[in-house]
Design goal:
The complex is a heterodimer.
Chain A: H1 9-29, H2 39-54, H3 59-74, H4 82-100, H5 107-132, H6 137-160, H7 162-171
Chain B: H1 2-42, H2 48-64, H3 70-91, H4 96-119, H5 122-130, H6 135-146, H7 148-164, H8 180-208, H9 223-226
Helix pairs in contact in B: 1-4, 1-5, 2-4, 3-4, 7-8
The chains are: A mainly alpha, B mainly alpha.
Chain lengths: ~180, ~230
């Protein structure tokens, strides 16, 4: 991943549109699964699309921050300002882990690892809220583990769909990168 | 003509002061909500009752503004059942009250956010947040929000066409995670292509109008707002 911080206007707009699409789809689909963690599917998919399409450090964090702002502005979810953390924390974790991953690693594996890292951070936000509320550490850890398991499944599912989509976008000559 | 000019000038000034007042109220509401949410975690247990009273007023206000509290109640019930059963298994009946207080804190932290979403117009929240962002990102957020109806129409159109083609992406089919890949290939992939093209077009359009060259950018107000 290129460690260049500023994104061009075109890249920033793409990140913004991806974030808005993520929020819009989350609001539009509202999958009534009754399982927590299914939001990680769309989140990991869109963050990893930004990572693959732009290949810049900070692209996922920017996407998460804008998604949080848009979700707050549109009133998606019931968390109010807390919804910002829900979107930003996984994105920051994924960006930081992406810095550590070698580029020689297969894109599939990188996507899965990043998706899982995002899921751990997403579950961490829930655990942090519970700890702040004064919940016992054992209960916090069990709930965190359950969230990681459920969210991890959906995050992996979303992450595995990214490499074929990137390959197709590349085939359409829409990406200006030679290698992912 | 001079009189009509003065009148329109006065109307514009009135419109500006009303906008500024609404933005200030929105900023204060945001601050109030953040403080109230933080109080739910920080305050000692004996002060939670007064905080609950304050939150109760917010709930009444939200309900009067035709807000739906069902989502918050559902969240509270799910959280209560999971937490209380874990407390019961791990610590026994003696600690159940402690578990209930924990859940109460979480609900008290959620209610102010719910109230904010109902009482403050979303575009005002966006405007307040844009004040804290760099120009480029404020432009990106504004462009994304204003293009949302276009994106939603585009997605809906593609979705319906793919449904007619027999893609397994109906709400019932999507309950099975196996069909999610189809949703990505049939709907998200064409939408992503559109977004990439749209971002390129918008960036060229903005840069050809010298976007980002001036340190103090001009903020144009929508003519629709001025006619209100």
């Amino acid at each position: 991943m290129t460690k260049k911080l500023p994104l061009s206007l075109q890249d920033s707009l793409f990140v913004g549109f991806c974030a808005t699409l993520l929020v819009a789809l989350t609001g539009m689909l509202r999958l009534k699964l009754g399982i927590s963690g299914h939001s990680m599917f769309l989140m990991s998919f869109f963050y990893l699309i930004c990572y693959g399409a732009l290949g810049r450090f900070g692209s996922m964090t920017a996407c998460g921050a804008i998604a949080g702002l848009v979700a707050m502005a549109l009133g998606v979810g019931k968390g109010g300002p807390m919804i910002l953390l829900k979107f930003v924390l996984p994105a920051i974790a994924m960006d930081l882990i992406a810095l550590l991953l070698p580029l020689s690693m297969a894109l599939h594996w990188r996507c899965v690892i990043l998706g899982l890292a995002g899921c751990i951070a997403w579950a961490g936000k829930v655990a942090l809220t519970n700890m702040l509320a004064g919940m016992e550490l054992d209960v916090v850890l069990i709930q965190w583990g359950m969230s990681v398991l459920k969210g991890g499944f959906f995050a992996t599912l979303g992450a595995l769909l990214v490499p074929p989509v990137l390959t197709r976008l590349k085939a359409q000559d829409l990406l200006h990168r030679d290698k992912f | 003509m001079w009189v009509s000019c003065r009148r329109s000038h006065r109307r514009t000034r009135g419109h500006w002061s009303r906008e500024r007042r609404e933005t200030a109220i929105c900023s204060l509401s945001l601050l109030f909500v953040c403080v109230l949410s933080a109080c739910a975690f920080v305050l000692p247990a004996y002060l939670l009752l007064s905080l609950a009273g304050l939150n109760g007023l917010l709930v009444i206000h939200g309900l009067l503004r035709r807000g739906c509290i069902f989502g918050v109640l559902k969240l509270g019930l799910v959280q209560l059942s999971i937490t209380l059963s874990l407390y019961l298994i791990l610590y026994g009946v003696a600690h159940l009250a402690q578990g209930a207080i924990v859940v109460a804190r979480i609900i008290l932290a959620t209610i102010p956010g719910w109230w904010l979403c109902i009482t403050v117009p979303p575009e005002r929240i966006g405007e307040v947040l844009s004040a804290f962002l760099p120009t480029k990102w404020a432009f990106v957020v504004a462009a994304s929000l204003s293009l949302l109806p276009y994106m939603a129409d585009e997605i809906r159109e593609i979705y319906h066409i793919q449904c007619l083609r027999g893609a397994r992406i109906t709400p019932r089919a999507l309950r099975n995670p196996r069909n999610w890949a189809e949703l990505v290939y049939c709907v998200l992939f064409p939408v992503l292509i559109q977004l990439l093209k749209l971002s390129r077009q918008m960036a060229i359009a903005a840069q050809s109008r010298h976007f980002g060259l001036n340190q103090r950018p001009t903020h144009w107000h929508s003519p629709r707002d001025n006619n209100d």
